[in-house]
Amino acid sequence: MRRLRTPAHPNYPRVVRASAWYDLVVTAGFATPWTYALVHDALSSCGNALGLGALPELDPFQILYANLMGSLVVVWAVLRIVGPRPEHGLFDGFARTLFAAWQVYALAHGASRLLWLFFGVEVAFGVLQLAPWRWVRITDPAGEDAGSTDGRPLGTASR
Questions:
Q1: Are 22 and 14 in contact (CB under 8 A)?
Q2: SS (H, E, C) 67-114
Q3: pLDDT (tens digit, 9 = 90+) per residue, 28-51?
C-alpha cells in the first residue's frame, strides 16, 4: 500500500503559516465591495505605472466573484495561521496549483500582466508546500497505524 508521508521538518508549519499570512494580507481587501473598489483602483494604477496594464472596469459580477474569493481565502488563511497543520499545507499547495493554472489561463487570454507578480508567489508557495510530501510504501503486515505529525504516513494518526 502507498500513502503520503507528512513533512517531518520542524519548519514546515512555518511555511504553511507564512503562506497564510501572505494570503491574508493580499486578499483581505477583496473580501468586501468597498475594499475591493480601493484594491482594484490601486492595482490598476500600479499596473499602468509599471506598463503591465490596468484591470478591466468594475462590474457587479466581477465584484461578487472577487468578494467570494476574498472571503473564502481570508477564512482559509486564518485557519492556517491559527493551526498550521501539515495537511493544511498539502491542500494549500494543491489550491495554489489550481490558482496558478487559472492565472496562466487568464494571462493567455489578455489579462493584465500584473498577474505575473501574483503567479510567481503562488508557484513559490505551492512548491514549498508540496515538495516535502512524498509517496512511501507501507509494508506493515499487521496494519498498525502510527502518528502522522512526525514524518509518518498521512491518514495514520493516532486515534
A1: no
A2: HHHHHHHHHHHHHHHHCCCHHHHHHHHHHHHHHHHHHHHHHHCCCCCC
A3: 999 999 999 999 999 999 999 999
